[in-house]
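## tool: complex_structure
## caller: assistant
## args:
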Amino acid sequence: MRAAVVVFPGSNCDRDCKVALERSTGADVTMVWHQDTALPAGLDLIVLPGGFSYGDYLRCGAMAALSPVMTEVKAAAERGVAVAGICNGFQILCEVGLLPGALLRNAALRYVCKPVDLDIVNTQTRFTAAFGGRREATMTVGNGEGNFFADEATLDRLEGEGQVVFRYKHNPNGSSRAIAGIVNPAGNVLGLMPHPDRAFEPALGSADGALVFQSVMASV
Amino acid sequence: MKAVVHVFLKPGVLDVQGKAVQSALHGLGWGDVDHVRVGRVIEFDLAGEDAADGKARVEAMCQRLLANPVIEGYRVEIAP
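## result:
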């Protein structure tokens, strides 16, 4: 599998994502700078990592959404390449319009950093197939603005179309309908607040994150 | 021209900062305060003379970048 991790100024999980991908899938991982205007050829997966791109200026992910590389990421997503936005990456995917909704400040105004138990709502996606029908996972969240918001009609559509992939068992941040991760209608773009890159081997408390990356590998 | 853009979360979107500020004001004895909203002000100079045209340009900027229309509303003021 060939994968790329996009590095924005202020990304801080880019290295974690590279190591997680390499160890869980053996993927060939290229780091791509946000100013780049081309992506490596033959990519199977593009990861937008967590962090604080552009210092969260204006809104989380707003400036990163305008980075030159995002034009290429959008084009690749439209061609069907798998794209996973983790945490700040999820915020960027919403800002750039590849996913609906937005991430608001956490309802309790606190930065939440802890392992969370998740329901896998849709086990048939390109990002969850390797869970083998398992309906539960544990990964770590670390966010201050992870409170997923969308209007009721959009939420109904996401639920009805199977686009809700992960749901918190105990909502840590006030997210609408406890949503932790969603996919686009085509199913190739995933945004999630929990970090698979912080849960890819047992020493980290959970290896469930590895299954997210292995799912993508199995689909290529 | 001078442009001033006020960006606030839309009504119906929980403004947790506003709630926290309100409860702090209540704690300081200003119990008469209600519906606090915390927003953002962005101001800049804008080339041109035509206020209506300037406002239209700034509104386009709001749609594209300055506000996130999913969660935020905005108000544009243009001054000479």
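## assistant note: The domain at 2-219 of chain A is CATH 3.40.50.880 (Rossmann fold). The CA atoms of residues 32 and 157 of chain A lie 33 Å apart. Handing back to user.
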